Hints:
- By secondary structure, the protein is an alpha/beta fold.
- It has helices spanning 22-33, 54-67, 82-95, 112-123, 136-139, 145-151, 184-189, 200-212, 217-232, 238-246, 263-275; strands at 5-9, 39-42, 73-76, 99-103, 130-134, 157-162, 175-178, 194-197.
- It has one domain (5-213): Aldolase class I (TIM Barrel), CATH 3.20.20.
- An 8-stranded parallel beta barrel has the order 1-2-3-4-5-6-7-8, surrounded by 5 helices.
Amino acid sequence: MTFGxxxxxxxxxxxxxxxxxxxxxxxxxxxxxxxxxxxxxxxxSTGEGSTLSDEEKLRLWEIGVAESGEAPVIAGTGSNDxxxxxxxxxxxxxxxxxxVLVVTPYYNKPDRRGLIAHFGAVxxxxxxxxxxxxxxxxxxxxxxxxxxxxLGEIDNVVAVKQSRYEDxxxxxxxxxxxxxxxxLADMLDVGATGGICVASNVAGTxxxxxxxxxxxxxxxxxxxxxxxxxxxQMPNPMGIKAALNMTGHDVGGLRLPLVExxxxxxxxxxxxLERHRLLATA
Length: 282
């Protein structure tokens, strides 16, 4: 499978008690796919996957598969415990997702041999396409391009979500996906097939224009830069959850150790949404 387009890293809606809000989840899946998004990543970092139980992740993926039609659903099955990632990947395959996103193991700091063994074991857990997730800002480790190319030789490792800004280039055998919203335009220019995006939770239609209208790509990027900055002023997904709640989608709060955006941060988000006419009252 080839992965591309605007793949939205969807937030996980919670109810007033902080539990998975199933109806709101189904509604958000449908809304995103009707508004510029080509597919969804569920239980990634934007989806607060690190604080979801395995059963919550499975239910989230089940809802996504049931509501997504032909659009791909990608399950975030990565962790810093290879056995856990293997188990989650196996169970995600049983649910019927279309692929898995597997982050570089964090905290453990494995060396090159450990990384190859980790991703090899996860890839072997199912026939699902595997997207590598290289995000040194969160995992400490940065996988160089030659290592990515070596991992790309594994049969079902098909893409990399690249969340560094330096030395970004296409890797033979791997689809290149932008992992940072503010890098989407630049990465499309060098051959990326799309991006796994956060701001597309509220601005999917506009972000899709960067793919559909390459001649206007820089203009669209520049117009959205204030939204990217507003969401990035606090740890993800604090900003995008605030934005979704402001735009009429009841996605609830966050799980500790993340906390809700404060009033000053919300004001910056609200001002950006107003400029883009994205507020529910606009």
